[in-house]
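Sequence dictates fold. Next comes a concrete instance:
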Amino acid sequence: MFTVSVARLKKAPAEERRYHLTGRIAALPGAGGEPVPVVSPVELELGITNAGDFLWAVGDVKAAVRLTCSRCIKEFLLQIEGRFEEKYRLHGDAPAGGNEEVAFAADELDFTGQVTETLMLSLPMKPLCHEDCKGLCAVCGRDLNTGKCSCPQEVGDPRFAVLARLKE
């Protein structure tokens, strides 16, 4: 899906090629194993440079996803974006003793895995429909973004009432 041919670039040291790729990903794996729907085409701006001994790829990825707010449980759309960098060796075996594993550059490189991983890492840990979302009432379940509820508001933990009296 996000595949580019680099056969000619491999033979041209110090050259760079730019690519604009668009594709579809139905969903991303989300927290708890629930799929996160991707509602727009995924865009990849990719630059690949021949650095002599290796190809250096830098990709900027963006897409819109549908998330559920962790406070008020309403669905909302969020534009996410991220960047990845990948290195592919052009000659010989992988360097011995190095802690870096560098894949060999084939004539066609598929960046679908990097695109998916970058989008997954760009997902917020606690999605919010807006930063000041008030959430739901713990008693009646009313959406507090639409107004206050008539539930009594408890102040503090009743187990600490004795400590509160000490202040008086």
Q: What stands out?
A: The two ends are 68 Å apart (CA to CA). The chain is about 15% helix and 35% strand. The CA atoms of residues 104 and 121 lie 25 Å apart. The chain has a mean pLDDT of 90.
